[in-house]
Amino acid sequence: MPASIGTREECMCFACLGLSSSAGKFSRRDVVLRASALGLVLPFASSALRPAQAAEQGAPPPADVVSGIKDIIAKARSPELLAAKAFEINGGDLPWTDLGLDAARGQQLTFLLNGKMWLSRDHDLWFSPGLVFHARTHGLQPMYNPMLDTGTMTVAHDGRIEVARSAAEWTSEDGTLGTPEDIYKKADVKITGIALLWRGDAAVGVKSLLAQGDVDGLLNSELARLQRGGKLPAGWSNLLGFGGGQEVFSQGADGEIICDTTGHVSIIERPLPLSLVSRPRLAWRWKIDQLPSVVAEDQAATHDYLSIGVKFEDGQDLTYIWSEHLPEGKVFRCPLPAWNAIETHMIVRSGKADLGSWKEQERDIAADYAAHIGGPAKAISKIWLLAVAPFQRRHGACRYADIKVTTDDKVVHKV
After folding, report:
1. What is the pLDDT of residues 31-63, one digit of tens each?
2. Which of 60, 114, 152, 336 is within CB 3.0–4.6 Å of 110 for a Cys-Cys bond?
3. Local structure of residue 200 (DSSP, 8 states)
4. At what angle are helices 218-228 and 65-76 packed, to 10 degrees?
5. What confidence score (pLDDT) does residue 319 get?
6. Of the candidates 96, 186, 102, which has an alpha carbon nearest to the alpha carbon of residue 143?
7. How far is CA 115 from CA 118, 127, 191, 317, in A?
8. Percent composition of the chain: helix, strand, coil (DSSP 3-state, to 5)
9. Whether residue 142 has a cis bond before it, omega within 30° of 0
10. Rounded distance, CA 293 to CA 44, Å?
């Protein structure tokens, strides 16, 4: 996964994963070239994803979310609901789409989403709508990304609401697109949704609609999310383009950081500028209860993992992974396009015998950087926690504790 997203060349473009030939948007040559660029072994990817695909094929067809929610709104006549706007985001649409909905600072706006962003229909590779959906007040930051297929945004500015889709394709906090427009518009994606603007508390409003029913469990899911009131661990923030970290990472009562994800991506970061000359050593304890990959993680189509990482001042990053299938000590560049120029992965623990048990790790950051990256960086800039599970769409769960960086002068920086 990425280092910070800066120039267009650095931008990790998930849209570049668009391999679908079924939609008629790409020639067979396009598919082959894109697969080759990704390093995808497509028959292997298909085999790895077959259990998830079989389960989804046996599921009932998705409901018409927009029509269903509109019917509930008509029955509920909720005094809590100020306005409702249905919308659709398609592959050929450029960001951003004006909803025609004005909101005031502090108001709450709930989004209920349906659809998929296809990477390859032939190989059942896709992203859920919540992963790629973003909203903002016209031209202004911050952007809101729910990560889940429901979410509630607290409006940051007075003004018109806009929505867009992006798979890590922003170059700035205010939603500037980094992917070339011709590539962006080739994406095979259709997201339908409805935006609900509330008079007061969103939870009260959602409850008023739930009294008249639900559609695919979306209202119930959003009420549960609102009642959880998830917050990021103190001092941590979401990486640009990856919102919803509070739905994946949380602070445990005893100071642990809890990570739990199914089919989503979250990267959170905490600033820690330290010179490499000070010989910083990263130490942590972790307990992996469930790894999100059933196969080796060094292929793009199966690149699902849990990791702790370090970002360097030159934009490079190095993440430490526990893998069931890759051997301890293996180092590889990220298999995803563009990010393979800026990210390195190291397997620091292998196998499943120790899953469910607390294990201690320590790494000499400067030595690892020199051996496996060898760039011009003079310092580290941030510590990362990564939870990546959109490809096989499986469950991953772990806990981190006692994360700290110690320098040669014996100064301990607790993270």
Report:
1. 333 333 333 334 334 455 555 555 455 555 667
2. 152
3. S
4. 80
5. 98
6. 96
7. 10, 9, 4, 32
8. 20, 35, 40
9. yes
10. 13
Contact between 19 and 301 (Cβ < 8 Å): no
Cα gap 319→312, rounded to integer Å:
11
Q: How far apart are CA 140 and CA 137, in angstroms?
A: 6
Q: What three-state secondary structure class fits 224?
A: helix
Which residues, 6+ apart, have CB-to-CB distance to 346 below 8 Å?
318, 319, 320, 321, 329, 330, 331, 363, 368, 372
In this prediction, residue 2 has a pLDDT band, given cuts at 50, 70 and 90, of very low
**Rounded to whole angstroms, how far apart are CA atoms 88 and 166?**
14
Give residues with Cβ within 8 angstroms of 158, minimum separation 6.
Answer: 102, 103, 104, 105, 137
Look at the domain 65-227 and name its fold.
Answer: Jelly Rolls (2.60.120)
**Encoded tokens for 134:** 């973003």
Rounded Cα–Cα distance for residues 31 and 24 (Å): 11
Chain centroid offset of residue 215 CA = 24
Tell which residue, 325, 336, 257, has the closest CA to residue 296: 325
Q: Percent of the chain beyond pLDDT 70?
A: 85
Contact in structure between 242 and 2 (CB atoms under 8 Å): no
Question: What are the structure tokens assigned to 74, written together?
Answer: 């008509």
Q: Identify which of 310, 306, 335 has the alpha carbon closest to the alpha carbon of residue 322.
A: 306
Neighbour count for residue 399 (Cβ, 10 Å)? 17
Q: Write out the CATH class of domain 230-414.
A: mainly beta
Work out whether strand 343-350 and strand 317-323 pair parallel, antiparallel, or are unpaired. parallel
Q: Which amino acid is present at 114?
A: N
Q: Which residues contact 234 (CB under 8 A, 6 or more apart)?
A: 251
The answer to whether 129 touches 27, Cβ cutoff 8 Å, is no
Domain ranges of the chain: 65-227, 230-414
Which amino acid, one-letter code, is at 312? F
